[in-house]
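INTERNAL AUDIT FORM
Audit reference: QA-55
Scope: verify that the stored structure record matches its stored sequence.
Auditor: D.O.
Record contents follow.
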Amino acid sequence: MFRRQKGFLAFVVGLGVFFALAGVVAASETPLVLTGKNLTIEDIVSVAVEGRKVAVSEEAMKNVSHSYDTVMKAAVEGMPVYGLTVGVGWNKDRPVFTTVEGKKVLSDELLNMSKKFNIISLRAHCAGVGSFLPVEVVRAGMLSRLNQFLTGIPGVQPYVVKIYERYLNEGITPLVPSKGTVGQADITLSSHIGLAMVGEWDVLYKGERMPALEVMKALQIEPLVPVGKDFLSILSTNALALGQAALAVAEAGHFLEISYPAFGLFLEGYNGNVAPFMKEVAEIRPFEGYVEAAEKMRKTLEGSYLYKPSETRAMQDPLSIRSMAYTLGNVEVALKRARAALILAVNHTDDNPAVIWDAKKGKDRDPQTSRYFLGDEGAIFPTANFEILPVVRELDSLNVALAQMSNRLVMQTIRLEDPKFTNLTRFLSDPENPGHAFGAIQKPLVEMDTENRMLAAPTQLGAIALAGNIEDTAGCTLISVRSLEQITENLYGILSLQLLHSTQAVDLRKSQMKDELFMAETTQKLYDAYRKVVPFVDQDRPFTKDIAEGIEFLKNMH
């Protein structure tokens, strides 16, 4: 994920790309000011991947302070609040502490009990398994949660915000296992972040695993002493999944954008029919995404020989080729909706309970909801806002759309090897040196496509009841995110193989057509750049290196 490097195979295709990494690097010199309202996926990439610094707006910090005051007031008054004055999960019926009778101030006894409950709760929820998440994923999750803190609704003490900010800016990354959550808040994973900030867990700092307490002492960072609702707000959130999903969606967006010039080059190698991409054709049935994809294909192919008639060109190509604007458009729509869901989620908190410090009770409020108010202003409401279904739904849809694209790319590539479709040599072998050529490399195409179709199975269809039969639904968000990551990775491999075929077909066709084959400007640039990395196949050779270099080439296209 995000292995593109500055200066490596810089290639501009002339189409607007999802994000330009060079622009992110330049922007990283200016701190990102967080408000809790306007974090974008591009912002997450710039901080998580490129190390951009962050700053918290003063106005947002006021929300945090007001909200924390409301939490402490609830504690003093002994108001039953989930995770504050009573336990969590099945233990929500058990009091954590009570106020000293007659006192309306925070006593040392009350604070100490709260701090103890916070610490043991963080410890008890650290239960991840598997390898540790990549640094950029944890940073993306921390950034997402920090931004949500600034809404004021989580109710954390201001120092929680400050220590998240310091961890991000100093490059301190808690070690967080990659598995162990069902997705209704990633409690068994995010808890490691809180425990590191307390000083009881390890972090990655300057490439080395170190005790968090040692790093904080060296940087003069005071360890967090969680109190009130701090522990619950740190661990009971989907922010970690949202951060990882944001990076995966950004990578899928990059793949989609480079797919247009790659398919254009395929069409030129295949001698395909451009009629299905005409404006008049697209407007007959203007489905969302389809019209946009057809337009992008027309721009990609401007100036191509494909707009000149050919006696050998088919009237109608195989469906995987002919309907490619629908395939690309389907991904466009799914990607757009996944982005929208993620942007909404990282700018709105998923806390249960939710602290609304400026809520007004009013005169006409019903008795049931009145009980959640502290006097006439300020309330702590139980919620179901940890429900991640709106995000998982869009991630699953994106996985399906990409898996459909995967299958069609494979079908297209195999068609290139068949002379009855192309009027070229079998398996695209060099006519001067007939051999196996690409006859054997259909296998990796089919394996990766098969895996993609398996990974596209939705994750949101069922659950096993947990926590005393209270937690009986689950989104399993991270499974969907990991599927998205692997599908995209496989797609790079599939497209690398198609590019190997497409450029070979173009070279063979040039030898047939001589000066009659002229490419579009966009596809010519792609062809020229790729040929500097992978040469024409004039005799049988190992292709593993070609495939790997093609993958890196595609990942670094921009």
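Auditor finding: record pair retrieved intact. Strands lie at 32-34, 54-56, 129-132, 172-174, 177-179, 202-205, 208-211, 354-360, 377-381.
Action required: none
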